[in-house]
Structure prediction request, 710 residues.
Amino acid sequence: MRRIALLILSLVSCLISFADQRGVTFEKDGLRYTISSEFTARRFNMNRSEGEQKYIIANEGEVYVSGVTVSNCVVRIPDIVYAPSTYGRKDTTVMAKYHVLGIGEKAFEGVILKDLIIPFGLKFIGNEAFRNLEITNGVLVVPPVRKMKANVFDGVKSKVLFMDLETQSKEYPLPIVFENTFQNKDNLPDFYIPHTCLNTQTNGLDKRILYSVGNNIYKKWVETSWDEIMRGRSNYRTYKSSSIISSVSLSKFYTREGEIASQIIIKTPKKFEKNGTDIDMLSPYEYECRNFFTKKRDVYEEVVLNESLYRCKKSGKYYYFASDGKPITNVESLMDDSGRDPFGLQVYSKEEIKAKKSNKEKENNLNNKVNDLKKAFGF
Amino acid sequence: MRITRIFLAIVIAIVFQNFSLSANEYSIGDIIKRDGISYKVLVTYLVVDSKETTDTIQGPDKFYCSGELMVVDVDKSLNDVVIPPSVDRFRVIGLTDSLFYRHEHDRIWLPKLQFAGNGCFAKLKMGSGALVIHDISNLGLGVFDELDADLIFDITRKITWGNAFSKMRADSSFVPSVPKGLIKTNTRMLGFIRNSYVYDDCYGATADNYKKWINKAFNEDEKFQQNDLVSKSERFNKRTYSTTPRKSKNGFTITASAVDVKGMGYPWGNLTRSYYRRANYSVLDKKSRKTTYYQDFIPVADPIQKSGWYVKFVSNGEEVKYMLNGKLIKK
Prediction:
């Protein structure tokens, strides 16, 4: 019975830690975001006044837009949004940097906006995301998005301009994946693409439903509504040649400066999961850890860092390492009185700690008694 | 007796020649008025009925006068304007300068044309909201200046744009001159306008979306769009004929056509009112495979000839006569 209770408790603690990362919602600048993943990273930070190299432990992650709280105004979806986070922190809150990766299901359903500015390089737009959306400026400009799900534009009350029909991944163009995006044909708006996209090969899109527009019309529409975004990006070709890849997918972070530092690379799986909900579309990261101390390469489900150690999760188990990669075997020494590790994770329950404390006390008492006996007998 | 026979033959020849000339219904410069539209005859040339063959053409009476017309006036009071592809045996090939200038019509149906003169559709107002242009090979200056409607290019081949989308100021400098409405075309035909000024300013559509545009321009009237069927039923359009059967190694193959008189000049260089064309007959000698070009071709009835008639060509005022088998008739 006791073992089962312990198992349930550990499972609950796992779920809590999972919920910390994924599914939490917050609001900022008229938009509602849902966190889909979160991690800590060691980032290089040059102190210009002192001329010294410094590293900071930063919280980063990914969010998707799950709703809007304003109307009749210009809404701009940023590339990056900052919000307070407690992930991997013990009793402290830091501002975490979240990359906006997509637009969730029915996020803009039935909203009336003056304009909606969508950033480049989004990974997905969820089912019926723009259902019955009305843009009073007249044109909804949609930059290339990796994947568009079912009936995204159902009932949109303005023209829809696709800036391109392919995204750029590294140096290779990737066609946008349309998954039943135009399935409901009764209530579709007029779709426009630039003449230059007419020969782009697409999946799941019948190009006969599209209108094409010349460069002057394209620029006029884009510049009207995208004044901010297009500033300094007057030539779209320049934009295309630059990288649109999510900055997270290839990022590296190091546990310690110097040659022997362990190296951890964040890897996102290449394919989207085909589950119904948006949160599952953003599949969890893989963390590839190259440990120079053990001379091993491992893939973990989660990695959290601070200045002196890092914690990795694999198959539900947590492993602790010093910053140079040396495994920490005496995990109990890292825990505080309440059973939490330096990252705030509840590793041991109170009962476990009580039991361990009592065991320790018993052991101490036993040791004390043995020592007393040794002294008494003159050893 | 012999002198009488020769005299009779000459009389009959003159009668036949006059008969063949009487087939010329119109001559160059004539104005034809039909259904509120006036046409000017630009050029005439001889054609044969498409049903006729070498065996049935046994004299000059089987040749008919055909030619090309330019539309010079359209009645302002017309609600729907239908410019047919041909009037009788004459093809409509162009529209004169300022033809629709400041006009107001509900719908206009145009055939495939060779040219539209300067300011042809300038300030035209369309009740249906769109003007559909089928193939027009050449466009003049400021053709669509302030056209008060959408402009749909329903084209199937390349257009020479010239200065169609610019107009001249008093100081001879050019300024852009575009329609007030949208410029639309079939997406599949975008390649034909890629190098034009309008490429960056036009909308493209295919399939149903394109059909929607066209239907709207003609007020959803399917019948109105079928005006080009008239030209398909035209019988007198065979411009190539042979003086001997097709397999015969002797004789001529004569093809009637028309060319611009001023060398490579185009109508929009000057006003189209002073524009005229000249008949051009390309004559292929079947035996030598040599082609010669003549300005005029006259089939002449002559009972002395074995065939009963011969052909006469005129080039720069000089006449040459040939028998049907290609042999030269010496003077």
Q: What stands out?
A: DSSP finds six helices and 25 strands in chain A.
